[in-house]
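DUF881 domain-containing protein
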Amino acid sequence: MKKRMKGKYVIFSFVFLVFGFILAFSYSQSGKEARMATNITDKQYLMENNLRKELILTQDRNRDLQRELYDKQEKVRQFEKELSQEEKIYFNLAEDAERYRMFLGKVKVQGSGIEVSLEDGEYKQSEDANNYLVHEHHVFKVVNELFIAGASAVAINGQRLNHDSYIICNGPVITVDGNPFPAPFKITAIGDTDILLSALTLTGGVRDQLVNDNIIFTVVKKKQIILDPVLGESS
């Protein structure tokens, strides 16, 4: 019986010894793993810290570059604005130049407009014929009214007028810039047909004045009028 009990103690002692050894080994291993984990975390912390610093520097640099980009974009916008203003100025100058060339008769022009016809009135032999003839002042009234109404180009019997044109009356013949034309006198003008027509046919206006002077006055709208440039050396 004592031997049996003694054997049990030996077995228990051996089991406890093995169990203690296992615990000691497990603790030792867990300690090593803990130390290894601690070492890896430190390295990661250093790496993350360095990366964080680099990220901050990169963000600062990006902000600087962004501010620089905004400044350059603002300069570009200012330049585009100035360029647009210059382009508008040049466009207006080009329009003015073209208008002056048309006024000077330097370019061929075409467009809608009106045609005014002035004819000598009918008279009896006992009356003064001069009171029934178209004179230069009659033509001047029509031409001046057309230009005031915005006509871009005017011609008399196909003779284009320019800034220094002259009209001289010599009996039944009118001379325009040295070229003689007999009646009837056809005055063509390019421009807004409604405005030109209204300007000539106002009550008490040019048409009524010429009719009172015994001039036969007719006016028609034209869809297409073509006027060639003035030939010669006039500037």
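thats it. The domain at 109-227 is CATH 3.30.70.1880 (Alpha-Beta Plaits). Residues 179 and 190 are 22 Å apart (CA to CA). bye
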